[in-house]
């Protein structure tokens, strides 16, 4: 039996480990598209802020873990898949046959249509190689512009500040992390960052980037221009599914999977940022591009590849972000339903905000800023679809009593 895995990120590596544990004899090939020791992108911010070295980003230390576990780590990028012949062809022309295939090719950062994003002083912060280039340019006092204050942008922000950069964030929407936080929480995060010395320009678009004399001149939609030593682009990602083109696999933005992480093709599974599976909060398909989802999907895919029927229950959209010390979170249907009810509580002075979304006597979504002690409870109430009973009216009046509600409902008292 030959298991072939495309992509050696967290999903691919978890699948390889799981397959090896389940089957000591199978041949396992892990195709490593970056030619690096397999690493975790999540660790890049810690590398950039100097908390860990490059080896600290590796998924396994030492790197010969793969050889010791008879996992064949093959550098190269898969150009195409022939699902009928059960072969993959690499960009260098090599062809490999498989019995079972896992697509774990993740996603990549993309550029918005803005002139001048191809220069040497402009980088994404997606790969370890991007991080090396950023580390060279983002030194103490360097003028750095960050394009995009989404989830990834706001994670990187902290490391750029830790490097001592003079940072300006430019966000096209009217607040920070607009897909995760509402106007109140996103604006609170902006004020928090400004208080910590970061310039944050919201409702502002970068119109063009011009390099000259060793610096960048960045034109803004406001008519102003900023000079910078480095522009970091964090303005969106797209799943890496080009190698599946022509196979007929069902796909939307990612490759569609069912609860066993099977694609529409026989003997082909997908997991991680390249896969589009069930979203707990809507029941629809979506890509939830976070590492815990990627590795759990990969474990489930590997179990099924090894013949052990395993289901992946819909993923709960959940983001926890720490930005210069302020923790913001969002869970489930955090923007609520039109037919639902909502409770909010804001304490501007203490940098605290909570918003709860209810439907049908249950909590279906939440957002918080500055509350660290209720993360597990919010997750438990939403993911457990716990009927709130009388707690619904209490939480509508006093949303900060979430932990109490969770403890009470967990013992079935209410
Ligand atoms: C800076 C940063 C910070 C992050 N922080 C967090 C965080 O705090 N929490 C969190 O949950 N998530 C975080 N994420 C997201 C998280 O890293 C991803 O969800 C996770 O990496 C997904 O794992 P994956 O294995 O599906 O994909 P990837 O990690 O993208 O791995 C896929 C691999 O496949 C390779 N590949 C692609 N195409 C091919 C091909 N054709 N042939 C061969 N190989 C190929 C890619 O080069 C890559 O090496 C962060 C991401 C970044 C960039």
Topology:
Elements: E1 2-6, H1 10-22, E2 27-32, H2 44-48, H3 65-68, E3 71-75, E4 78-82, E5 87-90, E6 95-97, E7 100-103, E8 107-109, E9 122-124, H4 128-137, E10 143-147, H5 151-162, E11 166-170, H6 183-195, E12 199-201, E13 206-212, E14 215-220, E15 225-228, E16 230-233, E17 237-239, E18 255-256, E19 268-270, E20 275-278, E21 285-286, H7 291-305, E22 318-323, E23 326-332, E24 341-347, E25 352-359, E26 362-369, H8 375-383, H9 391-397, H10 402-410
Parallel strand pairs: 1-2, 1-7, 2-3, 7-19, 9-16, 10-11, 10-16, 11-12, 18-20
Antiparallel strand pairs: 4-5, 5-6, 8-17, 13-14, 14-15, 20-21, 22-23, 23-26, 24-25, 25-26
Helix pairs in contact: 1-7, 8-10
CATH superfamily of the largest domain: FAD/NAD(P)-binding domain
Molecules bound to protein = flavin-adenine dinucleotide
Proportion of residues in β-strands: 25-35%
- The value of Rg in angstroms is 23 Å
Provide tags for this entry:
414 residues, alpha/beta, FAD/NAD(P)-binding domain, 3 domains
Written account of the structure:
The protein has 414 residues and is α/β, with parallel strands linked by helices. It has 3 domains: 2-108 and 237-305, FAD/NAD(P)-binding domain (3-Layer(bba) Sandwich); 122-233, FAD/NAD(P)-binding domain (3-Layer(bba) Sandwich); 326-410, FAD/NAD-linked reductase, C-terminal dimerisation domain (Enolase-like, domain 1, 2-Layer Sandwich), CATH 3.30.390.30. The chain has 10 helices and 26 strands. The chain has helices spanning 10-22, 44-48, 65-68, 128-137, 151-162, 183-195, 291-305, 375-383, 391-397, 402-410, and strands spanning 2-6, 27-32, 71-75, 78-82, 87-90, 95-97, 100-103, 107-109, 122-124, 143-147, 166-170, 199-201, 206-212, 215-220, 225-228, 230-233, 237-239, 255-256, 268-270, 275-278, 285-286, 318-323, 326-332, 341-347, 352-359, 362-369. Strands 3-2-1-7-19 form a 5-stranded parallel β-sheet. It has a 5-stranded parallel β-sheet with strand order 9-16-10-11-12. α5 links the parallel β10 (143-147) and β11 (166-170). The longest helix has 15 residues, at 291-305. The protein is globular, with a radius of gyration of 23 Å. The model has no long low-confidence stretch (mean pLDDT 95).
């Amino acid at each position: 039996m030959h298991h072939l895995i495309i992509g050696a990120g967290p999903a691919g590596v978890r699948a390889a480990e799981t397959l090896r544990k389940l089957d000591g004899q199978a041949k396992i090939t892990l195709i490593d598209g970056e030619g690096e020791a397999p690493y975790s992108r999540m660790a890049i911010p810690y590398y950039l802020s100097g908390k860990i070295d490059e080896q600290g980003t590796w998924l396994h230390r030492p790197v010969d873990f793969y050889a010791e576990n008879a996992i064949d780590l093959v550098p190269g990028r898969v150009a195409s898949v022939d699902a009928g012949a059960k072969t993959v062809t690499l960009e260098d022309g090599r062809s490999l046959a498989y019995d079972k295939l896992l697509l774990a090719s993740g996603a990549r950062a993309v550029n918005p249509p803005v002139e001048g994003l191809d220069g040497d002083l402009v980088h994404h912060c997606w790969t370890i190689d991007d991080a090396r280039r950023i580390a060279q340019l983002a030194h103490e006092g360097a003028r750095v512009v960050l394009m995009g204050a989404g989830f990834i942008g706001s994670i990187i922000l902290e490391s750029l500040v830790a490097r001592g950069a003079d940072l300006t964030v430019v966000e096209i929407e009217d607040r920070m992390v607009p897909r995760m936080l509402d106007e109140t929480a996103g604006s609170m995060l902006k004020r928090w960052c400004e208080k910590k010395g970061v310039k944050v320009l919201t409702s502002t678009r970068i119109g063009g980037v011009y390099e000259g004399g060793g610096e960048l001149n960045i034109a803004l939609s406001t008519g102003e221009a900023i000079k910078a030593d480095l522009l970091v682009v964090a303005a969106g990602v797209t799943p890496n599914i080009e190698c599946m083109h022509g196979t007929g696999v069902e796909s939307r933005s990612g490759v569609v999977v069912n609860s066993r992480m099977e694609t529409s093709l026989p003997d082909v599974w997908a997991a991680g940022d390249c896969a589009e599976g069930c979203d707990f909060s809507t029941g629809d398909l979506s890509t939830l591009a976070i590492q815990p989802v990627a590795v759990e999907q990969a474990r489930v895919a590997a179990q099924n590849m090894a013949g052990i029927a395993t289901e992946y229950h819909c993923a709960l959209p959940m983001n926890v972000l720490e930005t210069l010390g302020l923790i913001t979170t969002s869970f489930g249907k955090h923007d609520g339903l039109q037919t639902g009810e909502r409770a909010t509580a804001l304490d501007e002075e203490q940098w605290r905000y909570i918003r709860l979304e209810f439907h049908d006597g249950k909590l279906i979504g939440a957002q918080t800023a500055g509350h660290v002690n209720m993360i597990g409870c919010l997750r438990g109430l939403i993911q457990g679809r716990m009927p709130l009973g009388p707690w619904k009216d209490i939480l509508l009046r006093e949303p900060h009593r979430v932990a109490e509600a969770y403890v009470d409902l967990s013992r079935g008292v209410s």
